[in-house]
Amino acid sequence: xxxxxxxxxxxxxxxxxxxxxxxxxxxxxxxxxxxxxxxxxxxxxxxxxxxxxxxxxxxxxxxxxxxxxxxxxxxxxxxxxxxxxxxxxxxxxxxxxxxxxxxxxxxxxxxxxxxxxxxxxxxxxxxxxxxxxxxxxxxxxxxxxxxxxxxxxxxxxxxxxxxxxxxxxxxxxxxxxxxxxxxxxxxxxxxxxxxxxxxxxxxxxxxxxxxxxxxxxxxxxxxxxxxxxxxxxxxxxxxxxxxxxxxxxxxxxxxxxxxxxxxxxxxxxxxxxxxxxxxxxxxxxxxxxxxxxxxxxxxxxxxxxxx
Length: 307
What we know:
This protein is an alpha/beta fold. The chain has 2 domains: 3-166 and 235-304, TIM Barrel (Alpha-Beta Barrel), CATH 3.20.20; 168-232. Helices cover 37% and strands 19% of the residues. The strands form 3 sheets. An 8-stranded parallel barrel has the order 1-2-6-7-8-12-13-14, surrounded by 4 helices. A 3-stranded antiparallel sheet has the order 9-11-10. Strands 4-5 form a two-stranded antiparallel sheet. The longest helix is centred in the C-terminal third of the chain and has 16 residues, at 217-232. The model has no long low-confidence stretch (mean pLDDT 96).
């Protein structure tokens, strides 16, 4: 049976994602895996927060990396009518993990969201292991960025890494489709960030949008090919798996929207674990039940872990 991993802790009513309160909640429910996201403060401290910008999720605005850690102590996460929560540092989370008995300590997937996050995260993990507060079994570090994962391996090659797939890199789009400037929100979720996500899961709306907004034929063709490869799962081909192997990754993590049995089989044949994100309904689980994935990321651990 696939293991459930609590995506950003959870997305429960009354709880804010990526906060100490929600992490503690899922641990009391028996969680064996938690996924967290790391961005850096202006002064280089690792903060647990998903987005590059604070807008919409907190009582503040602007980029998180433009505020010092001290300034971020005055910023509170508050969504869905929940009580406000402070943005935790990675150090707070490590101390919490270390306080838990090993038998109930969840393994943590640490996703590197922002640039230059790898060094401080890997160094922090290494120190806690050297001090015998935690162990290598307590972590894996995950990222869309091969550059960041390479830094992790350089700091400590004993830390497990996992290559994330399924995003479309904004930097590649900026280079190849300059006519997308000011129009990313029409095509993508997380459109202000480097790792964008597709908004639709079939080509029909994209074809209409591209015809209307991307007048250059070469740019339009590049954009549509990139979107089609993502929708069909072609982005998880031999090159993706070879990249994971060259990095020394223990596994890959891929989207529920374009996962296929062939991708999972090829990954397993290459001795790579397969994680699938983010499954929140019974229909999601039914779709992948025969694919033999190794881990499932969900926002609703309390609904599924006893099923």
